[in-house]
Automatic annotation (TrEMBL):
<keyword id="KW-1133">Transmembrane helix</keyword>
<keyword id="KW-0472">Membrane</keyword>
<dbReference type="GO" id="GO:0022857">
    <property type="term" value="F:transmembrane transporter activity"/>
</dbReference>
<dbReference type="GO" id="GO:0005886">
    <property type="term" value="C:plasma membrane"/>
</dbReference>
<keyword id="KW-1003">Cell membrane</keyword>
<dbReference type="InterPro" id="IPR007387">
    <property type="entry name" value="TRAP_DctQ"/>
</dbReference>
<protein>
    <recommendedName>
        <fullName>TRAP transporter small permease protein</fullName>
    </recommendedName>
</protein>
<dbReference type="GO" id="GO:0015740">
    <property type="term" value="P:C4-dicarboxylate transport"/>
</dbReference>
<feature type="transmembrane region" description="Helical">
    <location>
        <begin position="33"/>
        <end position="56"/>
    </location>
</feature>
<dbReference type="InterPro" id="IPR055348">
    <property type="entry name" value="DctQ"/>
</dbReference>
<comment type="subunit">
    <text>The complex comprises the extracytoplasmic solute receptor protein and the two transmembrane proteins.</text>
</comment>
<keyword id="KW-0997">Cell inner membrane</keyword>
<comment type="function">
    <text>Part of the tripartite ATP-independent periplasmic (TRAP) transport system.</text>
</comment>
<feature type="domain" description="Tripartite ATP-independent periplasmic transporters DctQ component">
    <location>
        <begin position="43"/>
        <end position="176"/>
    </location>
</feature>
<feature type="transmembrane region" description="Helical">
    <location>
        <begin position="105"/>
        <end position="129"/>
    </location>
</feature>
<keyword id="KW-0812">Transmembrane</keyword>
<comment type="similarity">
    <text>Belongs to the TRAP transporter small permease family.</text>
</comment>
């Protein structure tokens, strides 16, 4: 593979992480199927809820919160998934006009900035998790929804968000390192 071809333009099989993402990126790419299945499961739950509610007049108390949870964690993971595939949104007006060496420098700089931003957001998420997962006395107790069913989904989403942001920061460091080294 030509070392001068930027990652976004390098030929690769449809549906895989960029080589610069390393083992972590490959692992994250494979994990995407779990969250895709979660969206399908959410759709099936909603179909069941419509039938139970409008055909049998027997709605559930758990369907709405469960589908929101499943879709929410899928969207959160989606950011990490896009990072591993180098499919995040970027303004390419300047980037596309650059030569291969300058693009590589931009890839390194962009990855470093994104790693720092992800780490700061992970820290902010930790502050949120402290309130959502621990009582004032320090004992563990996840925040609950407060509904009739009262699942721990809000606490789980906050913990998951923190973990994803921390892993995203690590993934951006891996990308920056591999872009700097010219590894494919």
């Amino acid at each position: 593979m030509d070392e001068n071809i930027p990652a976004a333009e390098a030929p690769r099989e449809h549906g895989e992480s960029v080589p610069e993402a390393g083992r972590l990126g490959r692992w994250l790419d494979r994990g995407g199927i779990v969250f895709a299945a979660g969206i399908v499961l959410a759709m099936l739950i909603l179909m069941q809820e419509v039938i139970l509610r409008y055909v049998f007049n027997a709605p559930t108390i758990w369907a709405h919160e469960t589908t929101v949870f499943l879709c929410g964690i899928a969207f959160i993971y989606g950011g990490l998934y896009c990072t591993a595939r180098d499919r995040h949104i970027r303004v390419v007006l300047i980037y596309d006009a650059l030569g291969p060496r300058l693009r590589r420098a931009f890839d390194v700089a962009i990855s470093i900035v994104c790693a720092a931003a992800s780490a700061m957001f992970a820290w902010a998420a930790w502050l949120m998790v402290e309130r959502a997962a621990f009582r004032p006395d320090g004992s563990f107790r996840l925040e609950r929804s407060g509904s009739a069913w009262d699942p721990v989904y809000p606490g789980l989403v906050k913990v998951f968000l923190m973990v994803v942001l921390a892993v995203m920061a690590i993934q951006f460091v891996v990308l920056a390192w591999n872009y700097a080294k010219g590894r494919r």
